[in-house]
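re: ur question from earlier - yeah i can do the single chain one, its not a big deal. heres the input i used so u can compare w yours
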Amino acid sequence: MIDLFVEQIEDSATRENFRRIVRAFKEKPFLKGDWRFVTITFTGTVTNFKYAHGLSFTPKDVIQTSITGSGAVTWNYSKFDKTNVDITVTGTVSATNPTVVRALVGIYTEGQG
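and the output i got, formated as tokens:
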């Protein structure tokens, strides 16, 4: 979260509005971390597929927001690294029946420095 210098705002109404904004953001778990939204399309089954996540750290968390198609997606957390997440897709997956997964990949940081 961005540290705002709220106390330096001279106008009291503006300062109070910024305090409320900061409180609202602190209550949202999706904002307590560093996330990248990804959409990945699979046209066949794969084992240990490497997907470049574009983050500067090894992600520890995935919040899968949707999956379409008949494939089953497994996130292989133990194989995540600073460059890629690792995914296995099983089931009936093809170019005419793709599986599309959408997710937030990153790290939840509440309680961490």
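Strands lie at 33-42, 46-52, 61-68, 72-75, 84-90, 99-108. not sure if urs matches, ping me
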